[in-house]
From TrEMBL:
GO molecular function: oxidoreductase activity
Cofactors: FAD
PROSITE patterns, per database record: ACYL_COA_DH_1, ACYL_COA_DH_2
InterPro entries xref list: Acyl-CoA_dehydrogenase (IPR050741), Acyl-CoA_DH_CS (IPR006089), Acyl-CoA_Oxase/DH_mid-dom (IPR006091), Acyl-CoA_Oxase/DH_mid-dom_sf (IPR046373), AcylCo_DH-like_C (IPR036250), AcylCo_DH/oxidase_C (IPR009075), AcylCoA_DH/ox_N (IPR013786), AcylCoA_DH/ox_N_sf (IPR037069)
The keyword Zinc is annotated on this UniProt entry: no
Transmembrane annotation, as ranges: none
Protein's name according to its UniProt entry: Acyl-CoA dehydrogenase family protein
Segments forming domain Acyl-CoA dehydrogenase/oxidase N-terminal: 4-118
Keywords: FAD, Flavoprotein, Oxidoreductase
Length: 387
């Protein structure tokens, strides 16, 4: 995959938006523990940035996924992971299944205002006892007439305190755990939906994260996305996109950290000469840059395969695994050369160090990525090659 001039122009526009509308407010939003999602998303919606690869009939631009990847990459110019993560939930985690499988009526009601930035979306998958193990979730949605009645709860819900609706994964029947789940659009102001608490996190502090409870929450069955019982499959499809976002979203951020560290060590004098005048720093920065470029190539390959209709579960899992580990390596390696300043919360590299830890956890932990890759390699116990 090679970016065209149109891709590059999109990236320039997104980068400019981040630099003017987001970066000046990062410190304020970090201190507040949240950012004004409706205000920011409306601005993004007005520029067509929340529906780049979504259907034009619902307000999207109708472009292929490579443009969404370019958007994701440019979002990495935000000086902190929180806002990019929240944007990613809106564009690539809570809405892909709705865009692909939802009825026209449902897409008009939930997708169109999400693309416009009038609605803030959140994703309801993880629970206290079911994080990476999605099949074990306990939230239920039983049928009652033409409605579903939902009971249970969700944990670690990004955008949860501000969201207008949730893309909820719930058990809609008994039976096999991979075939008894459905995705349902749940308006957050529905009676029985409770934002139990706003969570206090180590990093990603400018993004609000919530624990949500559902007590006899009644929504019409027409709010179901696609077929009943296909929710687990739809969510696995969404995970492909979420994991590519997790990998590609860190590319520019890692390059920024490397360049910032080069600039800082060039200006910091130690024993009468710039700190940068040490070969160990030259080699470390070069090695990190090489690894970032290798990850970029993997993301591009996965994106190209995706628009060609291929299953990219294995490539997306590889990118997520490598991206999560690399962003930690970059933030830790760079922070070391900032010395005492690297330990101060006022430094961008310190924020990256805190924020980056989530990439190896959210959207499926590293160990789950390894399990998925092993499955596709046919080396798990019980696989054809193992037998």
């Amino acid at each position: 995959m090679i970016y065209t001039e149109q891709h590059k122009e999109l990236m320039r526009s997104v980068t400019k938006f981040c630099q003017t509308e987001i970066n000046p407010h990062i410190e304020e939003w970090e201190a507040a523990g949240a950012f004004p999602a409706h205000e920011l998303f409306r601005k993004m919606g007005q520029q067509g940035l929340l529906g780049i690869n979504k259907p034009v009939e619902f307000g999207g631009l109708g472009l292929d996924y490579t443009y969404e990847l370019a958007f994701c990459e440019a979002i990495g110019s935000i000086r902190g992971g929180s806002i990019g993560m929240a944007i990613g939930v809106q564009t690539d985690m809570a809405t892909p299944a709705l865009a692909k499988h939802g009825s026209d009526e449902l897409r008009a009601e939930f997708l169109a205002p999400s693309i416009a930035g009038d609605y803030v979306a959140c994703l309801g998958v993880s629970e206290v006892g079911a994080g990476s193990d999605v099949a074990s979730l306990k939230t239920t949605a039983r049928k009652d007439g033409d409605d579903y009645v939902i009971n249970g709860g969700k944990m670690w819900t990004t955008n949860g305190t501000q969201a207008d609706w949730m893309c909820l994964l719930a058990n809609t029947s008994e039976g096999q755990v991979h075939r008894n789940k459905s995705l349902i659009c749940v308006p957050m102001k529905t009676k029985g939906v409770e934002v139990a608490r706003k969570l206090d996190k180590m990093g990603m502090r400018a993004s609000d994260t919530a624990q949500i409870f559902f007590d006899e929450v009644r929504v019409p069955q027409r709010y179901r996305i696609g077929e009943e019982g296909k929710g687990f499959i739809y969510q696995m499809e969404q995970f492909q996109i979420e994991r590519l976002w997790g990998a590609a979203g860190g590319l520019v951020a890692m390059e920024t950290a490397i360049n910032d560290t080069i600039d800082y060590t060039r200006s910091r004098m130690v024993f009468g000469k710039p700190l940068l005048d040490n070969q160990i720093i030259h080699f470390k920065m070069a090695e990190l840059q090489a690894k970032v470029e290798a990850l970029r190539s993997l993301c591009y390959r996965a994106a190209q395969n995706y628009i060609e209709g291929e299953d990219v579960t294995m490539l997306a899992s590889m990118a997520k695994l490598i991206g999560g580990r690399l962003v930690r390596e970059v933030s830790d390696g760079c922070l070391q050369y900032w010395g005492g300043m690297g330990f101060m919360n006022e430094s961008d590299i310190t924020r990256m160090y805190r924020d980056s830890r989530l990439t190896s956890i959210g959207g499926g932990a590293d160990e789950v990525m390894l399990q998925i890759i092993s499955k596709y390699m046919n080396i798990l116990p019980g696989s054809k090659k193992e037998k």
